[in-house]
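Hey L., structure's done. Input below.
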Amino acid sequence: MEKDQVPQDHGVLEGVRKVIYATDKNGTYTKVKTAGWEPENVALDQAWEVINEKVEAARQKVLAGKASPLLFHLEKNMITKGMLAELSGISWFKIIWHLRPSAFAKLNQKTLEKYARALNISVAQLKKTE
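Output:
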């Protein structure tokens, strides 16, 4: 693609630009900033809709007492139980157990702090679905 043909279609990431390579008039590859192009922006919009739906579904489960706030934060941060295990030093099996509201309610301060530190939030935020 030539430098002057790089698409500049604004989408979900309004104001965000990325760099791609295009050829200049000499045929040399050069970096060009772009706001994206429509097919890419449509795909990103759809992906964010799915993510937001998962976050809201997790929030509703927490509010209904069917899951602990930990589920909400996993979805909100787009991380898996395995990733949280790596970040927190807590086994994924225990994380699965802590997704139960009754188990989460019994967590000691040290464990809550490990989760909060791994998620880069406070313990108070960990206990909420905001």
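Strands lie at 18-23, 29-34. The chain has a mean pLDDT of 87.

-- N.
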